[in-house]
Amino acid sequence: MQDKYVEYWKQVTQKLKNNIYVVGYDPINEPMPSYHSIFDLVNKLIPGHYDRMQLEPLYKRLFETYQEASEDNIMMFEPGTFPDMIALDHHEHTM
């Protein structure tokens, strides 16, 4: 599925690479992890795990695609909000 998603963005960036009004791309709005098994769920409850293990490699591939179309392209990105925001919220309330 990631290969198809990267290919989609390759097509988009190639179509828009000469558009002076496009300064960059935001590939995923508020990414949330999916769960394939109980072990996968437990791993994703560790703050930052989803970001490092799934989002970061995908974002790297997408950024390379953006740069391939134009070195001037920037990428705006968001970390996974769950469970990181819950962990931060809990931490703030315990201080």
The gyration radius over C-alpha positions equals 16 Å
**Structural class determined from secondary elements:** mainly alpha
Shape: elongated
- Residues in helix, %: 55-70%
Number of helices: 4
How would a crystallographer describe the biggest sheet?
A: 2 strands, parallel
* Estimated share of beta-strand residues: under 5%
* Spatial gap, N to C terminus: 42 Å
- Strand sequence of the main sheet, in spatial order? 1-2
Output mean pLDDT.
84
Low-confidence stretches: none
Q: Which H/E pattern describes the elements?
A: HEHHEH
What's the β-strand tally?
Answer: 2
Can you describe what's shown?
By secondary structure, the protein is mainly alpha-helical. The chain has a domain at 34-95. 56% of the residues lie in helices and 4% in strands. It contains four helices and two strands, in the order αβααβα. It has helices at residues 2-16, 38-44, 49-69, 84-93; strands spanning 24-25, 74-75. Strands 1-2 form a two-stranded parallel sheet. It is elongated and about 45 Å long. The protein starts with a helix and ends with a helix. The mean pLDDT is 84.
Write the layout of secondary structure elements.
Elements: H1 2-16, E1 24-25, H2 38-44, H3 49-69, E2 74-75, H4 84-93
Parallel strand pairs: 1-2
